Amino acid sequence: MFEGALNKLLQKILGEFVQDLDSKNLKLAVWSGNVVLNNLRLKSEALAKLDLPVFVHAGLLGSLNLSVPWKNLWDAPTKIKIKNVILLVAPKDAAPYDEQKTKEAERQRKRGMLEAVETAQKDLLEDKKETQSWAESIITAIVKNLEIEIEDIHIRYEDPSSRYSLGVSLHRVFATTTDAAWNPKVIQGTGDRIFKLAKVENFSMYWNADDTMLFEKPAVDIERLLQDQIVRSGHPIPPHEFIIHPMGCEVKMVLDSGTKVIFDIPKAMASVHFTSLTTEVRRHQYLNTVNLIDYMERAKKKLPFAKFHPNCPVTGNTTKWWHYAYQYCEETVIKRRIRNWRWRNILRHRQRCRKYTQLRVKEMTGKPSLNELHEMQELFDVLDIVNITICEQNAKLEADRISANTTSWWGWWSGKSSSSSSSSSVSEKYGLTATEKERLNAAIEQSQAAAAKQFYPEFYEKFKLKLYVGKVSFKLNDQDSVLTEAAVTGIQTDVAVVPNGSGLNVTYLVQTVYVSYRDNKVLRPSNTKRL
Questions:
Q1: CA angle 101, 106, 109 (to 5 degrees)
Q2: CB 517 within 8 A of CB 484
Q3: Burial level of 140, CB count in 10 A (0-12/13-18/19+)?
Q4: Plot region of 302 (φ>0 → left; ψ -120 to 50 → alpha; else → beta)
Q5: DSSP 8-state symbol, 189
Q6: Which of 99, 78, 201, 91 is nearest to 144 (CA)?
Q7: Which long-range contacts (CB under 8 A, 24 or more apart) does 3-9 make?
Q8: Which residues are 170's β-sheet partners?
């Protein structure tokens, strides 16, 4: 029923991040309902959509297990388990210029921007009442018994020139469906209230100065060392300089999936409980943060001209560096002005846009040849995102016009009206036949008539969040001495979304506040404030 949609989703997501993905075996695994993928290598351009001057030096997805009970989707659990996600990220300056990888990263960035534009247009043009009703129904049916387990994540950034590293590690996240007493349970049949319990274990963030660079080691050793440095309960804590010390939390959620709105019960309610949260900032960490932000800004400016970089020290190579500066000015100022205002270049640009539009129309309405696909890719690399977006819109309009003419002639010949196709737009979007659509309605107790507009009273809280933190500690250090230390205990915060009224209600409670400071090299506590 949804096998094809899930296969496309996995192909799209994994294809962007994973090297040498076996599409045929993945499709067969999806249709069998049991997807098992092990030791997947991540692409160096996996983070291209973030638009940051970094690349993945070593990346591993240890295992991905997906179990989908296609024969009993509504009453059996869907399980997702991810283990050993290892990433070592480095600045692009640390790697030699690779023209092919740079092109692929730029293509990924453009495709991501095009997808964002298309998504925004669909949100504006589609019939949201019907589409959202069906989307929410399908998601509710699957999420009802969804189990997610993520174990052992370590993402580390290294700067070989400054010899510092920062990273985030997570031992385990587990989310499952429970009963009203928060005991794990599989929900059979239909029900209005869904209870979810999630636990986070040993999340931490560190920033080490003058650290050993894993960047210089083989990929196998990097993956092993990063796995060993994940904080786990019952194991020695790695010698990191933590910004956020290892901590955990528990999240309880209650979802109301019923079609009828009960004003005394929120549509979704979550309770987040932290036992303690300890943060610590050292002087070198603050200075390195400032330097990192400055580097990111400078690297973005010079990234388009990395191919001209001399890749050698300034001392003894002044001629190469002056030539690099000249090429930078020539590309950004001189040639740009010539290209923009010379008629020959304007004509060439218009011909490229027209040709790209024609090839896209042919791809949408037929099957272009391999040479045409190659030419279209070359034009995609040359044109900027603004012109590509305009060409894409023109191509869609032309393709829709051609399809409309073809449909009208076929409708006249077969005696079918064009209005019959519009009534099945939702079914076509989700890949459902009429019989499957009726079965979905019966299984999740959802019909299009339930999408009537609701009028909410002012006291109704649609979404509610409760946050409790037992203790929050903060330290500001200068080398080995403590400059300032603060602690807040008993933090309780309630946030509620009110559809008809003030919009957002926030209440908070703090029990005690403790602050100490250094005066003449002596740490003096201030008075404890009880609120």
A1: 130
A2: yes
A3: middle
A4: alpha
A5: S
A6: 78
A7: 3/30, 3/31, 3/70, 4/431, 5/430, 5/431, 6/30, 6/68, 7/31
A8: 153, 203
Written as six digits, the tokens of 193 are: 């209230």
* In the block, residue with structure tokens 């993905």: 21
Average pLDDT over residues 309-322: 85
Question: Taking the CA atoms of the chain, what radius of gyration do you get in angstroms?
Answer: 28
SS (HEC) of 426-479 = HHHHHCCCHHHHHHHHHHHCCCHHHHCCCCCCCCCCCEEEEEEEEEEEEEEEEC
* β-pair type (78-91, 54-67): antiparallel
Q: What is the pLDDT of residues 487-508, one digit of tens each?
A: 899 899 999 888 765 678 888 8
What is the rounded CA–CA span in Å between residue 377 and residue 388?
12
pLDDT digits (tens, 9 = 90+) for 401-429: 887 776 555 555 555 544 444 444 445 54
To which residue do tokens 């999740």 refer? Answer: 444
The CA-atom distances, in angstroms, between 383 and each of 154, 280, 387, 390, 413 are 37, 47, 6, 11, 42
Maximum CA extent, the chain? 95
| Tokens linked to 16 | 């962007």
Q: Which amino acid is at 98?
A: D
Amino acid at site 387: N
pTM given for the model: 0.72
For residue 310, what are the contacts with CB-CB under 8 A and spacing of at least 6? 317, 320, 321, 323, 324
Q: What phi and psi, each to the nearest 5 degrees, are found at residue 408?
A: -65, -40
> CA-CA distance, 111 to 106, in Å (whole number)?
9
